[in-house]
């Protein structure tokens, strides 16, 4: 009982304090004080002289019959042709470099695709071996008489199949590791990730 009365009293006091603070905030601003936005507008109007805006040329108001003013001396006629040739040579060089990059990236992509194909082939061969082993094991264990008569031969075949499966699994794992290594090398060579994956 005391606890609920205590909480009620604390709630009433805090409500009273909050309402008095809100009332004090709303009444503390004098009416003659203006906002910051009003002050900025007033300063902007009082600056008086409007600054002339510079002429901006675009395609709509560009003069077609008059020459544009160029600062400095005009270059000789032969000098104007040289930068154009330099730009063409630089552009051709950049195109050549881009073509070399594309060829190198294509080469990396072909290597990666070949490795992925090798992984797919090895995985399918492993799957075939596992299924063949399961069929032979099911046939062997289904016939009790055959199991008793040919147990030594089955043990030999069983060991051979298990060895073949283990070898093929190792080949698949090695091919996957080689693919990971190739992808890492391609990343270091700067091949885009869209061509690597």
Structural description of this entry:
The longest helix is centred in the middle third of the chain and has 66 residues, at 77-142. The chain has helices spanning 2-28, 36-46, 77-142, 144-149, 151-188, 193-196. It is flat and about 115 Å long. The mean pLDDT is 79. It has 197 residues and is an all-alpha fold. The two termini are 71 Å apart. 2% of the residues are buried. The chain has a domain at 87-190. The protein has six helices and no strands. Helix 3 (77-142) packs antiparallel against helix 5.
Radius of gyration: 43 Å
Report the mean per-residue pLDDT as an integer. 79
Shape: flat
Order of helices and strands: HHHHHH
Q: Any low-confidence stretches, pLDDT <50, length ≥5? A: none
Number of helices: 6
The tally of beta strands, per DSSP, is 0
Q: Residue share in helices?
A: over 70%
Q: Indicate the structural class.
A: mainly alpha
Relative strand content: under 5%
Largest sheet: none
Report, as a whole number of angstroms, the end-to-end distance.
71 Å
Set down the secondary structure blueprint:
Blueprint: H1 2-28, H2 36-46, H3 77-142, H4 144-149, H5 151-188, H6 193-196
Helix pairs in contact: 3-5
Keywords:
197 residues; mainly alpha; 6 helices; single chain; flat
Brief description of this entry?
With 197 residues, the protein is mainly alpha-helical. The chain has a domain at 87-190.
């Amino acid at each position: 009982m005391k606890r609920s009365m205590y909480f009620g009293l604390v709630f009433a006091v805090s409500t009273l304090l909050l309402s008095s603070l809100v009332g004090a905030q709303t009444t503390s601003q004098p009416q003659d004080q203006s906002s910051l936005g009003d002050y900025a507008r007033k300063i902007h109007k009082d600056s008086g002289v409007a600054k002339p805006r510079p002429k901006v040329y675009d395609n709509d108001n560009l003069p077609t019959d008059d020459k544009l003013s160029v600062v400095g001396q005009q270059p000789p006629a032969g000098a104007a042709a040289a930068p154009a040739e330099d730009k063409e040579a630089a552009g051709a060089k950049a195109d050549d470099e881009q073509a070399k990059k594309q060829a190198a990236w294509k080469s990396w992509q072909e290597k990666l695709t070949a490795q992925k194909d090798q992984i797919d082939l090895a995985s399918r061969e492993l799957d075939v071996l596992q299924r063949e082993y399961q069929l032979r094991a099911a046939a062997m264990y289904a016939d009790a008489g055959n199991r008793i008569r040919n147990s030594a031969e089955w043990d030999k075949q069983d060991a051979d199949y298990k060895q073949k499966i283990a070898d093929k699994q190792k080949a698949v794992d090695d091919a996957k590791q080689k693919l990971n290594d190739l992808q890492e090398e391609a990343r270091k060579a700067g091949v885009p990730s869209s061509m690597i994956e």
